[in-house]
Amino acid sequence: MTAIATATAISLSLPFSLCRSNKSYTRKFVKGSFGVFAVYGEEGGIPDNKSSWLTLFNVEDPRTKVPQSKGKFLDANQALEVARYDLQYCDWRARQDVLSIMLLHEKVVEVLNPLARDYKSIGTMKKELAELQEELSQAHNQVHISETRVSAALDKLAYMEELVNDRLLQERSTVESECTSSSASTSTGLLDTPKSKQPRRALNVSGPVKDYSSHLKNFWYPVAFSADLKDDTMLPIDCFEQSWVIFRGADGKPGCVRNTCAHRACPLDLGSVNEGRIQCPYHGWEYSTDGKCEKMPSTRLLNVKIKALPCFEQEGMIWIWPGNDPPAATLPSLLPPSGFQIHAEIVMELPVEHGLLLDNLLDLAHAPFTHTSTFAKGWSVPSLVKFLTPASGLQGYWDPYPIDMEFRPPCMVLSTIGISKPGKLEGQSTKQCSTHLHQLHVCLPASQQKTRLLYRMSLDFAPLLKYIPFMQYVWRHFAEQVLNEDLRLVLGQQDRMLNGANIWNLPVSYDKLGVRYRIWRDAVDSGEKELPFSK
Hints:
Elements: H1 2-11, H2 76-112, H3 114-117, H4 122-180, H5 182-187, E1 221-225, E2 234-239, E3 242-248, E4 254-258, E5 272-274, E6 277-279, E7 286-287, E8 293-295, E9 308-309, E10 311-314, E11 317-320, E12 341-350, H6 354-361, H7 367-370, E13 386-388, E14 395-399, E15 403-408, E16 412-419, E17 435-447, E18 450-459, H8 471-498, H9 512-525
Keywords: 2Fe-2S, Chloroplast, Coiled coil, Iron, Iron-sulfur, Metal-binding, Oxidoreductase, Plastid, Transit peptide
GO molecular function: 2 iron, 2 sulfur cluster binding; metal ion binding; oxidoreductase activity
Main location: plastid
C-alpha cells in the first residue's frame, strides 16, 4: 500500500496520463511548459455472471465517467483528474481479470461434477473442457496484459519524476538568474526591450572548492569505529580543515579535543594517554576529554583549556558535532538491518573532496564500465538504468540491479545488494534475492581535497567468515581494489574541476540520487531552514 500511495503522490506532481491503451501512446510537449495529450482505448466490460462473491468485483467501469479529453492538451487540474481515472481503471481491470478466472474455475468444477457427468456424453465433456481451456488461456493472457499495464504505469511515474527534477532545477536556476539581474532591470525599468529565453542551466560544480559553510557543520558526524579506540590509544582526525584528537577519559567515554597544545602548539597525538588524560610530548601538560588542562609539570597550574567538541559513542561508532549551533538531541542509527552481521570495519584517508566521493558512491550506472576487474566483472550493460525513488526522498532502488540505496545526511551512503555469489547478481530486486550484502560509507569532510572514509560491510549469510583469522585484511584488500578503480576517475574529475570544468554539466535520468544530494547540499550551504527531500 505504501508503494501505491507513493506512486499516486508522484502522479499528482505533473499533468501526465498513466493509461495503457490498445492504441499507441502519444506524448507531446508545449515549448516552455508541460503538456498532456490524452489517449484512451481498449474495449471491454464486466462479465454478466453472478456468484456468491460477485459483490467484491461489482465495481463500476470508470471509463463511463472519464472526461472527454482525447486529443486535447490538459492543464494541471484536468491532468490530475485523468490520472485519477487511470488509477481507477487499473483497479477495475485487475478485478475483472480475476473474476473471469474464478468464473471459469466454477465452470470447470461444474463440468467435472459427478452428477453432471451422468447426463453428458464423453464427447460433450471433452468439447466443453476444450472450450474452457481456451477461455482460461485467454483469461491468463489478460492477467499478463494487466501486469504489463501496471509495469508501464510505474515506468511513466518514474519518467514523470524525472520531469519534476528537471523542473526543480529549472526553477532554481530561474530564481538565481532573476536575483543577479534585478539591479540591471531596475536601472533600465523604462526600457521595454524583448528578452531572449535562456537555456536551462545544469548544476554548477566547478572551480576551486569553496570554503565549507558553517551550516554544513551543524550535524552529527561519525568519525571513528569504537573498536579502533582503546583505553590507552588516541585517534587523530581532520574535520573541516581543523585537526582534532579523540581519546577515552577515565570513565571510558570518548572525548574530542583540538590537536594542539595550548603551551607551544605541539601536536597532542604525538604524546600518550595517561589515566584518561592526553599528555603533550613536549612539556607533559595533560588535558581531560573536556579540554581542561589538569596537569602542568614543573610549574604552577594555570586555568587553561583547549577547544573540545561534543562527542558521543553509539552503536559501535564515535560521533562529533563540529558546528556552533546546539547539538541535535538524537543521533541517527547506522546499524545494518535485522539479520545482518558486521564482518568488516575499514578506515581510509582519500585525496578527494568528500562531495566528489559522495557523487561517485550515489551512482551505480558506472559499475559495468569502471569495476570490470572486481564486483561488476561480467555484468552486461543494460539498455536502460533507472533509480526509482519517492518524489521527496533521498532513497530508492536501482533498476535493473537488485540494489537499494540511500543518502543519509550529512555524508552517509547506505546500500543493500542482493547477491548469489561474489561478483554476480540475481533477481530484479533485493526482496527476490536469498543473500545480501549491506554497506555503509561515511565520507567525512577532512579538508577541501581530503576525505576520511569509514566503511562497514555486513552480510546476512556465512556468519563463520568473521571468525576466520586475518579475514579483516582480506576484506580490506577487496575494498581497496574497488576503491582504486573509482579513485583514478574521481581524481581526474577533481583536477578538471579545480581548473574550471563543471562536473555536473549534463545530468541524466540515472543521476537522480546524485542530483538530489547536490540540491540538498546547496540548500544547506545557503542556510535554508527547510531542507529539500527531508520529509
